[in-house]
């Protein structure tokens, strides 16, 4: 789908108050998929990742971006494109090496949503194993942040309780590509 077609689809959806999802369909010059832009956000996905961006409000009020992406082959993880907000069905299908990234926009102005300093990333200190709505046995990071006058909750779920440093680095490379428009 061309950037112009994405922009037109987003404008039509906003005008009619409908929720809309976008799959990774664009490619940067090196061939890596770009998810978005939709609802003012986009992210570069490595080969083999799948994702979507949709309106978290599903047309009920001002659109809020809801991004879901993961290191799943689309054939292995068809539920990502029709899953609930926290990827419950996807989480059940995760292998130890899989990663699920959720970026939810919120209308909150709570002080916990501190302005982003540098690229978005997770650290070992961000990882926990008992976050409501996520399965036990999976490490989960929660990072609230704001950028461009917008507030977001980042959740990164790993398919294991103890992700390898290489997994965290791979996620950080993806997160560092997040682009947010005002």
Please describe what this structure looks like.
The structure is a single chain. The protein is an alpha+beta fold and 182 residues long. It has 3 helices and 11 strands, in the order H-E-E-E-E-E-E-H-E-E-E-E-H-E. The strands form 2 sheets. Strands 1-5-6-7-10-9-8 form a 7-stranded antiparallel sheet, with no helix packed on it. The model is unreliable at 1-29 (pLDDT under 50).
Provide the gyration radius in Å. 16 Å
Would you tell me the structural class of the helices and strands? alpha+beta
Helix content percent band: 10-25%
Strand order, biggest sheet? 1-5-6-7-10-9-8
What's the quaternary structure here?
single chain
Average pLDDT for all residues = 77
Distance between the termini: 23 Å
Order of helices and strands: HEEEEEEHEEEEHE
Say how many strands there are. Answer: 11
- Main beta-sheet annotation: 7 strands, antiparallel
């Amino acid at each position: 789908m061309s950037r112009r077609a994405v922009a037109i689809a987003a404008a039509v959806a906003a005008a009619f108050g409908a929720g809309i999802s976008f799959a990774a369909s664009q490619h940067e010059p090196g061939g890596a998929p770009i998810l978005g832009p939709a609802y003012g956000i986009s992210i570069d996905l490595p080969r083999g990742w799948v994702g979507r961006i949709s309106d978290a409000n599903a047309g009920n009020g001002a659109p809020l971006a809801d991004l879901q992406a993961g290191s799943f082959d689309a054939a292995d993880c068809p539920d990502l494109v029709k899953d609930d907000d926290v990827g419950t069905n996807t989480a059940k299908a995760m292998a130890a090496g899989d990663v699920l990234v959720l970026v939810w926009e919120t209308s909150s102005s709570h002080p916990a949503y501190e302005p982003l300093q540098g690229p978005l990333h997770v650290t070992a200190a961000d990882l926990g194993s008992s976050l409501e709505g996520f399965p036990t046995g999976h490490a989960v990071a929660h990072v609230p942040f704001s950028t461009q006058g917008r507030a977001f909750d980042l959740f990164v779920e790993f398919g294991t309780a103890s992700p390898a440093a290489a997994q965290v680095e791979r996620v950080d490379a993806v997160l560092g590509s997040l682009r947010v428009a005002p």
